[in-house]
Design brief:
- The chain contains 13 helices and 12 strands.
- With 343 residues, it is of the alpha/beta class.
- β9, α11 and β10 form a beta-alpha-beta unit.
- α6 packs across α8.
- It binds 2-keto-D-gluconic acid (8YV).
């Protein structure tokens, strides 16, 4: 997914001298899992209020109360809109998102209010691309269905005709969004001897296209030719419902859709309809339109593999994401620039 760097805004003033800081220690609210090694990297003059969102979610009201008066916040996908920022008060200078996608944060409002927003690009690209391949293989080879079959005690006779899936080698992967994750996916797909076509607002450089052995096509053409269509775009007004009843109808009946981007890139009801009517063969979904809710009927379909937004979910990657988010906050609170700002 892309990190759209925006021109630097004028941010809220910082306590620049030691004298300023002596009467006002910066305070940080971390609303995320926080490993000890990362916590120890926070300078002791920053007071830390920690709530592990992976143990229990706060309501937006409680989150707002904890945020009030803080100078920085680390969030893990929590929606932070203009009202929340305003309610936090004028002390708030930095919002560090633990994730490359930052559609949960109103970046325009933050910029207007002089608040720095940061994300965690790059470090999760490999793990997320792995997840794309995992879902592609699982959907093609019907892994989840076969697993359920064995657990149900149905594996009792001849196995030759069981769970025939789709061949990968020599088939075409269509990647929508050729940012860092899309590129990592293309490299993996070449390793599986797949042909790579892609769509991106702008084609990548000829040199990169050549090294990835990837060909740019118009969006509708990617839908038409892909045997495996993988979504790697950020969510914004231009990408919402890229997959809808019309574009699903362009897909081959034996094609599979994989979503490792954001749920709302897909019209989930239209997808349920296509999977139910078998107008496409299968889907692998790591993200959903209204997480953690699923569209009615989705769980009843045999031809979809579902995972709960775990694209970047490895210990190494998630730890690195937290470390980067915390480094970004600390940098801003110490009067320096964040290493991965988005505004
Ligand atoms: C995060 C993600 O787990 O990076 C992203 O954009 O979707 C995931 O890696 C998610 O942001 C929740 O924090």
């Amino acid at each position: 997914m892309h990190c759209l760097n925006r021109p630097n805004q004028s941010y809220r003033p910082l306590p620049t001298s030691k004298k300023d800081q002596s009467h006002m220690h910066p305070s940080l609210f971390v609303y995320s899992w926080l490993p000890q090694t990362v916590r120890e990297a926070i300078p002791t003059d920053i007071s830390v209020d920690h709530h592990d969102s992976s143990v229990a979610a706060l309501t937006p009201e409680d989150f707002g109360r904890r945020l009030a008066g803080k100078h920085g916040v680390v969030v893990n996908g929590m929606a932070v809109g203009r009202q929340m920022m305003q309610a936090a008060g004028p002390s708030l200078r930095v919002i560090a998102n633990v994730g490359v996608g930052y559609d949960n944060i109103d970046v325009d409002a933050a910029s207007e209010l002089g608040i720095v927003v940061t994300n965690t690009p790059d470090i999760l690209s490999e793990a997320t691309a792995d997840m794309g391949i995992a879902l592609l293989l699982a959907s093609a080879r019907r892994i989840a269905e076969a697993d359920r079959f064995i657990r149900a005690g149905l594996y009792t006779k001849d196995k030759f005709r069981l769970f025939w899936g789709a061949e990968i080698s020599g088939r075409t992967i269509g990647i929508i969004g050729m940012g860092r994750i899309g590129q990592a996916l293309a490299r993996r797909a070449r390793g599986f001897n797949m042909k790579v076509v892609y769509n991106n607002r702008k084609p990548v450089t000829p040199g990169l296209e050549q090294s990835l052995e990837a060909k740019w096509l118009a969006l509708d053409d990617v839908f038409r030719v892909a045997d495996f269509l993988v979504l790697c775009v950020p969510l914004n007004a231009g990408t919402r419902h890229t997959v809808n009843a019309r574009t699903l109808a362009l897909m081959k009946p034996d094609a599979h859709l994989i979503n490792i981007a954001r749920g709302p890139v897909v019209d989930e009801l239209a997808l349920v309809d296509a999977l139910r009517k078998n107008t496409i063969a299968g889907a692998g979904l790591d993200v959903f339109e209204q997480e953690p809710k699923l569209a009615p009927g989705l769980v009843d379909l045999p031809n979809v593999v579902l995972t709960p937004h775990i694209g970047s979910g490895t210990l190494q990657t998630r730890t690195a994401m937290l470390a980067l988010a915390v480094r970004n906050v600390v940098s801003v609170l110490e009067g320096n620039t964040a290493s991965t700002p988005v505004n």
